[in-house]
Amino acid sequence: MQVRARVRHEPDRSYAVLVDGPDGEVEVGRTGRTADLWALAQAGAARLFGDGLGADNLTLHVPQPPYGQDGQWVRIIAGENPDDPSESDDIGVLAQARWFGHEGAWFVTGIVLHVNRELIHHGAEISLLRDLYRWQDSAVRARFQ
């Protein structure tokens, strides 16, 4: 038996998990963390259909949230506590947000590009310093021969 579950995005940016039960769609729980969605759907399906339901018999659909657009530019911030935005630090990097529906999450592509550019930049600096050191060493040897 295949059981379908879906996520509904709430106005407060929390998530409601709904499972297709024998009598229609049933809300089995709410959470504020995307990491808890799968476990919540499994626990709700087990309550509705019994504990014998395996993970391979459950499909969870997470639609794109109504806030944000695929490909929009976002500013990256870092924070210890996601519930208190006053504690967050602005990293200052702009990046594009992409929606990955099968993962049910936004993926920010600019960070990968930024890290790649930084690696190339610092690698070039190291190579330049290496070449200058080799040139200096060969120039000193040529002067004393």
Furnish the topology, listing elements before pairings.
Blueprint: E1 3-9, E2 15-21, E3 24-31, H1 37-49, E4 58-61, E5 73-78, E6 89-100, E7 105-108, H2 110-143
Parallel strand pairs: 1-4
Antiparallel strand pairs: 1-2, 2-3, 5-6, 6-7
Features:
single chain, 145 residues, alpha+beta, three-stranded antiparallel β-sheet, 7 strands, 32% helix, elongated
Describe it for me?
It contains 2 helices and 7 strands. The N and C termini lie far apart (86 Å). The strands form 2 sheets. It has a 4-stranded mixed beta sheet with strand order 3-2-1-4, with helices on one face. The protein has a 3-stranded antiparallel beta sheet with strand order 5-6-7, covered by helices on one side. By secondary structure, it is an alpha+beta fold.
**Side-by-side strand order of the widest sheet:** 3-2-1-4
**Could you state the order of secondary-structure elements as H and E?**
EEEHEEEEH
Uncertain regions: pLDDT < 50 for 5+ in a row? none
Strand content: 25-35%
Major beta sheet summary: 4 strands, mixed
